[in-house]
Amino acid sequence: SFWLEPNSGTRAPCLAWPLHVLSQISPPPPAFFHRAGRARCVMAGGPDRLEVGGGQPSGDNAQSSARGVVRLAPAALALSLFGLALRSTLPAPQQGLRSPSPAFARMLRGSPAPRDRCAEAREVLGRNWKESRGSTVPSTGLYPHQWSWDTAFIAIGHATINITRAKSELRRLFEGQWSNGMVPHIVFDPDVQDTSYFPGANWWESSKAAHGVAPSRVETSGITNPPVHTAAVLRIADTGHTDFLEEMWPKLDALLTYFHRDRNPTGRGLVYVRHPWENGMDNSPLWDGPLYAGIPNGLLADLPPYSRTDIHRGVDPRDRPSRAFYDRAVYILLESRKQGYDEGILWSGGLPFAIYDSFFNSLVLCGYEDMAEIALRLGRDDDVSRYRIWAEELADAIEEELWDKDEGIYGILDAVSGDRLTAKHVTGLAPLFYTTLGQRSVSTRKDHVARLLSLVRSRPFCGEGDCSPLPTLATDEPSFDSRNYWRGPVWINTNWLLARGLSRHGASGEAQRIRDSIRSLVERNGMYEYFDPLSGVPHGSNGFSWTSALYYDCCCK
Q1: Within this chain, do residues 254 and 385 fall inside the same structural domain, yes or no?
Q2: How many domains does the chain have?
Q3: Is residue 87 domain-shared with residue 122, that is, in the same domain?
Q4: Could you say which of 195, 205, 236, 294 is the most buried, measured as most Cβ atoms within 10 Å of its Cβ?
């Protein structure tokens, strides 16, 4: 079925009922007409063009009165159009499309095009591989450099596709590791023009501003990402390449020690993020309060002009973070650079944004669990004990500091204001990723896991089959936006993490439902960046690397 979403925000069914051939156009694809309430819908030029008007069509076209987007659900294909349709309720179809083309017929019945998505996943990873860098970009247009947690997810996919590339991904990323152990969230490709991505290397100035802590041979950002690299290294080792554990141990140990030493200022185990990009969920609604309270408009008066690249490459601005968000993200970047990216100075008052986040902390805890496993395989008994102690310490802190007993979900703690903030966001489900029990919270953890499982099964998180699980924000939250980045859409990486965590907790049925969602969304649409949970429509970049890698890991082995 098709959905028309005009700019007004009204969603109206269009073309979900009998379609009638009006005429043939040149080239051959037919034009179709159907009345939807007071609107009339015309498809001309096959599946590539669709126009809607409020009056009787003239020839193959209708008069345009507003701009909108047509959504094909569940085939999940977005088409540009002009027109206006009004909400209406029509009876069930009496007849089908007359003599549709095979491709059009497949769209109408909601089945994917007959192609091998596993082969497509391999093709995407091949296209996005940069031989000169020995690594893979997230996508060839919008993201032309190497991203940290993307690299880890890509390496997981490559572990069963191309083990040489899987290792190379991580080796090249860790060439950008800072002397304090931090792995930056971007390692910039010197062969890519700096204006191709914002903010580019000249905004971060890591090699100059960090006073020798950042590497001089490569430019990087000045913030980090969740340490999912430990999972990637274990996945590579599990293919028989156990020597990679020894090779990567000092690099991973430096990274996880950095979090415990430099991002755990209270000594209780909780790790803080100092930029909204660090946990990977850039414009999460959980950031709204801290960002707008901590950085009022007055502080932005002297912000230098900048030009975003993320909304000029065929990406609808409605899918992306707002200008107000970007202003604050850039402000934090510049303040961090001004302080030389010094962790001590930044924590002691140099930044308006410092958050203890349940998603980031859960992935740090998973990193501790993985490091204990790697140490065990390497016979490093003291390190096994150290990482298990750190994991238990952090597990207790998450239970005691981030659990919201009223909402039944984990939240975030604003270290600047002291406020605890909660929303039904995938962030709050992240403690399902790990299984470590803290010494002080054994009795409460079981109940908390049960409440999280109940949320995963709930209707707002698409647990009752009427939308695609698992939206990053529950559909009944006021800030829910089904198409806007981390404020509602389904992302394949969070689904992959959640399915893995659910399996570890013995929730095999829920885990399979999440994996089925990965399979369905990708097989109907292809390797897109993220997906509308209500309609299944894809958004963001097509040919996205971690979608390809994790789909392959989930569904093609």
Answers
A1: yes
A2: 2
A3: no
A4: 236
Measured CA to CA in angstroms, residue 519 lies from 117, 496, 512 at distances of 9, 11, 10
The CATH code of the domain that includes 271 is: 1.50.10.10
Whether the per-residue pLDDT at 19 is higher than 70: the answer is: no
- Helix (H) / strand (E) containing 51: strand 50-53
Catalytic residue list contains 407 = no
Q: Which of 5, 529, 532, 553 is catalytic?
A: 529
3-state secondary structure of 157: helix
Dist. CA 465–CA 536, nearest whole Å: 13
Q: Pick from 82, 109, 136: which residue ends a domain?
A: 109
Q: Does 400 qualify as catalytic in the annotation?
A: no
| Terminal-to-terminal C-alpha distance of the chain | 32
* Residue 144 structural domain: 118-555
pLDDT at 316: 84
Of 92, 109, 126, the last residue of a domain is 109
Confidence band for 68, pLDDT divided at 50, 70 and 90: very low
Residues 51 and 154 in one domain: no
- The pLDDT of 295-320, averaged and rounded, is 90
Q: For 280-314, give the DSSP string.
A: S-TT-GGGHHHHHHHS-GGGGTTPPP---STTSSS
Output the pLDDT for position 85. Answer: 29
- pLDDT class of 557 with cuts at 50, 70, 90: confident
Contact between 186 and 221 under an 8 Å Cβ cutoff? The reply is yes
Whats the size of the chain, residue-wise? 557
Question: Of 51, 120, 219, 282, which residue is the catalytic one?
Answer: 282
